[in-house]
Design a protein that fits this description.
Blueprint: H1 2-9, H2 18-41, H3 46-58, H4 60-74, H5 78-82
Length: about 100
């Protein structure tokens, strides 16, 4: 087990499988295009769209995670309220 972990950490040639990296590249490209399309369809200013796009391009995985969290925070939660998963609005006075 120690040898396998050492080979993985040192990127030994025996562990490099091109098909895996190509698959990961396609997954990343699909996530990138989906995220950029989501930004394009948002009803925000062009400046904010440009800033989000730059963040996602320069901080790849972290930028997508921050954008996903931002979308969850700013989302319309009325559907969740209608089925009883959220009881009210969240604000600083109710805490």
């Amino acid at each position: 087990m120690k040898t396998a972990i050492q080979r993985f950490i040192t990127l030994d040639a025996r562990n490099i499988i091109p098909e895996v990296y190509i698959g990961l590249l396609f997954i990343y490209a699909a996530l990138l295009l989906t995220t950029l399309n989501s930004i394009r369809t948002q009803s925000i200013s062009r400046t904010r769209k440009f800033i989000w796009a730059l963040l996602i391009l320069f901080v790849p995985i972290g930028g997508m995670a921050i954008y996903a969290i931002s979308c969850l925070i700013t989302a319309d939660h009325s559907f969740l309220r209608s089925i009883g998963l959220i009881r009210g609005t969240f604000n600083s006075k109710s805490i």
